[in-house]
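User: quick one, fold this
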Amino acid sequence: MKCVLENGDVLAQEVESARSFFKRLKGLMFRPSMPQGTALLLAPCPQIHTCFMRFAIDVLFLAEDGTVLYVKENMKPWRISPIVRRAVQTLEFAGGTLRGRVKAGMRVDFTE
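Assistant:
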């Protein structure tokens, strides 16, 4: 599955899904890195942490319809995000992926 902004900009060529409790709990912990062009989709998920992670990440908190509610770029290890009300999905990317391209209010779509 691909992650695409409303303007056609591809954010990730490959999106891994973490929908079970254990997959969401593990997330990106203990991985040595995250390849560019990939993302991790956690659902449901209104808040994240980067404990036990070895690299910074860019994060999008999404409403049910794919609208971006909150953007956090370059979230370093051992941090906790705010709880984002109405967020039902969280997309995590390698740090530096977003580079200011995504703002709250934009829409993200997933395609096969």
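User: anything notable?
Assistant: Helices lie at 21-26.
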